[in-house]
Amino acid sequence: DIQMTQSPSSLSASVGDRVTITCRASQSISSYLNWYQQKPGKAPKLLIYAASSLQSGVPSRFSGSGSGTDFTLTISSLQPEDFATYYCQQSYSTLMYSFGQGTKLEIK
Amino acid sequence: QLQLQESGPGLVKPSETLSLTCTVSGGSISSSSYYWGWIRQPPGKGLEWIGSIYYSGSTYYNPSLKSRVTISVDTSKNQFSLNLSSVTAADTAVYYCARHRAAAPSDYWGQGTLVTVSS
Question: Is the omega angle on the peptide bond into residue A59 within 30 degrees of 0, that is, cis?
Answer without folding.
Answer: no
